[in-house]
Automatic annotation (TrEMBL), chain A:
Organism: Nocardioides hwasunensis
Spans annotated as Disordered: 1-27
Protein name: Pyruvate dehydrogenase (Acetyl-transferring) E1 component subunit alpha
Pfam families (alphabetical): E1_dh (PF00676)
Oxidoreductase found in the keyword field: yes
Domain Dehydrogenase E1 component: 56-334
InterPro entries xrefs: Alpha-ketoacid_DH_E1_comp (IPR050771), DH_E1 (IPR001017), PdhA/BkdA (IPR017596), THDP-binding (IPR029061)
Keywords: Oxidoreductase, Pyruvate, Thiamine pyrophosphate
Taxonomy of the source species: Bacteria, Bacillati, Actinomycetota, Actinomycetes, Propionibacteriales
Cofactor (UniProt): thiamine diphosphate
UniProtKB/TrEMBL annotation, chain B:
InterPro entries assigned to the protein according to its UniProt record, in alphabetical order: THDP-binding, Transketo_C/PFOR_II, Transketolase-like_Pyr-bd, Transketolase_C
SUPFAM superfamilies assigned: Thiamin diphosphate-binding fold (THDP-binding), TK C-terminal domain-like
Name of the featured protein: Alpha-ketoacid dehydrogenase subunit beta
Transketolase-like pyrimidine-binding domain sequence ranges: 7-182
Cofactor(s) the record lists: thiamine diphosphate
A Pfam family the protein falls into: Transket_pyr
Keywords from the UniProt entry: Oxidoreductase, Thiamine pyrophosphate
SMART domains (UniProt xref): Transket_pyr (SM00861)
PANTHER family: PYRUVATE DEHYDROGENASE E1 COMPONENT BETA SUBUNIT, PYRUVATE DEHYDROGENASE E1 COMPONENT SUBUNIT BETA
Length: 389, 328
């Protein structure tokens, strides 16, 4: 009998000891050393083409991140939310989607955006300060980046409830059946909205996959500050299954997310995927992780790099030749060039643009403020002393 | 053609919701107890029975969840109408309303519309416990991206709820709960309603202008009757829309009367009256014979209900303010 007396079991006994590397529940198909392993429940027979494709996606996603980080350092972006180390989690989840599936991202899902066909250049506008989300969500079924932590999980649930009402869930037609994926992080798991989203999704059996990238850190706060039990085990308390997958293993993430989405599309309700990963970079370019975490930890996770392990596997099994890497290198460089030149060419909004789009049609009140401000600006025309733009 | 019915505000809203659901199958209702029970005030009475559980949705008891999922439904092309059970319960949803509902259209540069109606029974006078009698309108009117309207009578309830649902922007729809089952009015369903975002002169007068909305419209009209017996002819304007404000009829009136009193159940400090007073002063400065006076609740939390009538603006306090405008 534990010190808790008769009031329920000792949670440490129920959930087992905490494991730094994800513990025995971790679904893995490719080890950090690049060894292919199998899982009785979640597996997938990857073709060489698929494997090369996933590798390419991760390399290009990392390139987006590296270029954007450099653009911030050069003053072209105000800030950038880095995804370094989370490429497998995002590509695995992103490639498991079908065109009719809808994504609700945080502000870090650059790899998922890429999978959904959003031009990565469009992602930069928000971080450069020229817009607040420059893409049309309906065009690629990819929602706008959401900055308030966890708020989008409720939007995802409502959208999934809409899909249920549209009759695109559980029809048996793979071209029709649809699901939603809600991205969020370990920090967001503490938000009321995320917990309410779990409750609504469970209550209505909504076709939504809650995809949590547990990257171990919410800015400076470690995962232990958010939860006392492995995150994926929370799902059971809400009434749906939770799976922990190696988020640095693109194969496992793909297989698990695919199964979760399929379950949702078939009308079997929500599920929770905890992609166990690591934020190798800073929270954003304004953050300094050396103030709160040890370098040893970073070095440990570098050995589990999501791209390296697939590279080892591809090479060892003769699935790639040097030409593949050379071509990919060229492609990555072109992408970098596209981002650098495109970013600098993004037009600044005009002063009067701030009045647009508050509503579907401009109200007289806002039009009056706009006109007054326009007249004020015009009063400086020809003057060299003030109000210049 | 059926004869015109005499209906209460509750009935008007119920009929309006029903009509909106008949007209557009994308209209969904969601909230706590709105289904089988028909809402704690019975505003959605009978709608789940007729439109089904997929369109009249009993939600878990979580206001942020109600509004947040409505955002997702709107993104999917639906027109959700959500009920917040009582004014004081809207705050758990405040973040979703202010950060998401109000900003999605702007964030998307007009690519995304948020046709969501958030119905809130508001105001006091029903002898309720704490959090059941509040007037939070200024918090929403202060937020760019939200439209805020308040109905004051059964006929407006019928039309305004339909207009709000058909509107492409988010609307905070305030219903004076004290009036739900009070006075009846005759509804002519074949009439053409006034546009949603307009104010209306509900009593013409010459000596002073009283601005009111929601529950205080009735107070202002009673006040005008009492003043008339004392030889003073008050003009009463039902603002109906709080954001955007429809100031043209207000300016026109105040320029004629030279005096203006605003009354609402919300706290006076930074309430709607403050904005109205500022605008009237700016636009009607040379017509004013007296400063614009405000009659509202005191800047205290809502008191225990046994003394709520001493807290809410009533006929005498509005009349007193009118008298004071004549003392300048």
């Amino acid at each position: 009998m534990s010190e808790h007396g008769s009031f329920g079991p000792d949670l440490a006994e129920v959930f087992g000891p905490s494991h730094a590397d994800g513990g025995p529940d971790l679904v893995q198909l490719l080890t950090p050393e690049g060894e292919r392993v199998h899982h009785p429940e979640f597996d997938h027979d990857f073709s060489a083409e698929e494997l090369r494709g996933l590798y390419r996606d991760m390399v290009l996603t990392r390139r987006i991140d590296v270029e954007a980080t450099a653009l911030q350092r050069h003053g072209e972006l105000g800030i950038w939310a880095q995804l370094l180390g989370q490429e497998a989690a995002q590509i695995g989840a992103g490639r498991a989607l079908r065109p009719q599936d809808y994504v609700f991202p945080t502000y870090r899902e650059h790899g998922v955006a890429y999978c959904k066909g959003v031009d990565p250049l469009r992602l930069l506008g928000l971080f450069r300060g020229v817009d607040q989300g420059g893409w049309d969500p309906a065009e690629n079924n990819f929602g706008l980046y959401t900055i308030v932590i966890g708020a989008q999980t409720l939007h995802a649930t409502g959208y999934a409830m809409g899909m249920q009402r549209d009759g695109v869930v559980g029809t048996g037609d793979p071209e029709r059946d649809s699901a939603v994926i809600a991205h969020f992080g370990d920090g967001a798991s503490s938000q009321g909205d995320v917990n309410e989203a779990f409750i609504f999704a469970a209550s209505y059996n909504a076709p939504v996959v809650f995809f949590c990238q547990n990257n171990q850190w919410a800015i400076s706060e470690p995962i232990e500050r958010q939860t006392r039990i492995p995150l994926h085990k929370r799902a059971l308390g809400f009434g749906f299954p939770g799976i922990r997958v190696d988020g640095n293993d693109v194969l496992a993430t793909y297989a698990v997310t695919k199964a979760a989405l399929q379950r949702a599309r078939e009308g079997n309700g929500p599920s929770f995927v905890e992609a166990y990963t690591y934020r190798m970079g800073a929270h954003t370019t304004t953050d300094d992780p050396t103030r709160y975490r040890l370098n040893d930890e970073l070095e440990h996770w570098k050995l589990k790099d999501p791209i390296e392990r697939l590279k080892v596997y591809l090479r060892r099994n003769g699935l790639v030749d040097q030409e593949f890497f050379d071509d990919l290198d060229v492609e990555a460089k072109e992408l970098g060039h596209h981002l650098r030149e495109g970013c600098k060419a993004l037009p600044d909004p005009k002063p009067l643009d701030q009045f647009g789009y508050v509503f579907s049609e401009m109200t007289d009140e806002i039009a009056a403020q706009r006109d007054e401000f326009a007249a004020y600006l015009a009063s400086f025309e020809g003057s060299t002393t003030g109000g210049g733009h | 053609m059926t004869a015109n019915q005499k209906i209460t505000l509750a009935k008007g809203l119920n009929m309006g919701l029903r009509k909106a659901m008949e007209d557009d199958d994308k209209v969904l209702l969601m909230g706590e107890d709105v289904g089988k029970l028909g809402g704690v005030f019975r505003i959605t009475d009978g709608l789940q029975k007729d439109f089904g559980e997929d369109r009249v949705i009993d939600s878990p008891l979580a206001e942020s969840g109600i509004v947040g999922t409505a955002v997702g439904m709107a993104l999917r092309g639906y027109r959700p109408v959500v009920e917040i059970q009582f004014d004081g319960f809207v705050y758990p949803a405040y973040d979703q309303i202010v950060c998401q509902v109000a900003k999605y259209t702007y964030r998307s540069q007009g690519k995304v519309k948020m046709p969501i109606v958030i119905r809130i029974p508001f105001g006091g006078g029903i002898g309720a416990v704490e959090h059941h009698s509040e007037s939070p309108e200024a918090q929403f009117a202060h937020t760019p991206g939200l439209k805020v309207v308040a109905c004051s009578n059964p006929v407006d309830g019928y039309w305004m709820i339909q207009q709000a649902i058909a509107h492409d922007d988010p609307v905070i729809f305030l219903e004076p709960k004290r009036q739900y089952h009070a006075d009846k009015a005759e509804l002519d369903e074949s009439a053409t309603p006034e546009p949603l975002f307009t104010s209306r002169v509900v009593r013409a007068g010459t000596d002073a202008t009283v601005l009111a909305y929601g529950p205080t419209v009735k107070t202002a009209l009673k006040c005008a009757e009492a003043a008339a017996s004392e030889g003073r002819n008050l003009e009463v304007i039902d603002l109906r829309t709080l954001s955007p404000l429809d100031m043209a009829p207000v300016y026109e009136s105040v320029r004629r009367t030279g005096r203006c009193v605003v009354t609402h159940e919300a706290h006076v400090n930074l309430g709607m009256g403050a904005e109205l007073a500022a605008r009237v002063t700016e636009e009607c400065f040379y017509s004013l014979e007296a400063p614009v006076l405000r009659v509202g609740a005191f800047d205290t939390p809502y008191p225990p209900s046994r003394i709520e009538e001493e807290y809410l603006p009533d006929l005498d306090r509005v009349l007193d303010a009118v008298d004071r405008t004549f003392a300048f």
